Write the structure tokens for this entry.
Amino acid sequence: MTFSNHKIVLAVLLFMSSVTSVMAQQSAHLEFELTAEGALSSGTYTPYMLTVNRFDVLSPRANTGYMSAGINGDLQFTKHWNVAGGLTAMSSVHSNHKAYLQELYFNATYRKVNFEVGVRQRNTPTLNALLTSGDLIFSGNAKPIPTFHVSTTGFVEVPYLKKWLEAYADFGYGRLFDQKYSEDRFELFHESHFGSFFTRDVYFHHKQLYLRSNSSHPFYVTVGMQHAVYFGGVKTSYDTGEKKESGKKKIKPADFMRVLIPKSDATAGNAGDSFVYGNHLGIWYLDFNYQRNNHLLRAYMEKPFEDGSGIAFRNGLDGLWGFEYASKQTSGIIPVKGIVFEYLQTTNQSGPIHWAPGDFNSEISQKLPSEATGADNYYNNFFYNGYCYYGLSVGSALLKSPYYNEDNYLNYTDNRVQAWHLGVNGDITAHFGYLLKSSYREGLGTPFVPLPVKNHSFDSLIQVDWHQGPWQCAAAFAITQGNIYGNTYGFDVKITYHGKIL
């Protein structure tokens, strides 16, 4: 062994020694999780309630399943610095992907600020992810989008206000990678439909800010907003029966700033300055909370907007309106842990009429006395495909995802909806729990293509959970009835083993 090799060995030994010393002195843990799940169904699709708001881990196609292996851990270096990371690999049958990484992320936290890059399953902080019908902007229904984002570590106290105000903030950018999926569906669709299009190389921006009064008080209030944008991209269309591309240009640093606030942009569309750059949508949020003796009652509202009319609350009662009961008991058997009841309406959309002078040539636009900013056409856009990822809604799944369009159309065909949703969970014994969820929805088509007869679907699920030590098992029965997803029922079994390495 040469002298240089001795130095290398010595350096490695010193490095390993220092790492071992740091890990011995600081807080660290490493865990793994193994999961297998399968669902058998009687119809074309897996029953809605078995797949919804689960990050597309269980495919909407009938008779599906997967196996996954995940590992995650964190290391506290100092009092203020913490690093963490995770990876989840999956193998599926009857899905868009056979083998893939569902999660791969790295996270660093300094004091109460969190920096993260990668792909990770995460939800918004305001709704009960287990029981809700889904957040209108970021529901956890589609696969997680690869992003870089900066956030607070949950709700944190705003300094200098004597604990009277708490805030949660999240700001980030991402990139869509479902181009092959969308292009394949587009090629099948445009053969019989002129005017079809799909957009590739799309970027994503998402931010949210919530402010709430002191949550340790019996009564507290939360107000806030979310804003999401699809931007960049190259649109391929068959407007005249021939292939045509538009918007083909490299993304620039300035484009990431242009999407922060939606505003008119003469370069954003072919018809003039009535357009904005990117497909913008968002919500205003408000909730009222009352807590006493380990019980919490909450009423909340998510008010959607897609343009200035929605931002100005000109879309009537459109929104998600919810009531929640939550038990704050932390030990013992809790017969009812939570109850959520929600009503969703998206039928107003700022009225059925829309026109703007910039949408037409000068001869026609001179005859228009003003503009009408209605027919908001939620989740749809003239340049970008529907607000979805691999065909599944990034927002509320109660607006039928393009995945279910039998003709492979990439936009939403039924976004004027009224829906009612109920979710309940609790304990049966110390080792058994239950989950009940039901939704009923009626659809009226879109503002531009209304349906002559309502679409409807009733979806329900009953699930029993068992947990003992590192093992968790769940068995569920779900049923779907109606003309949206067809009539089907299905059984689902899931087994999980959770272990600690360090």
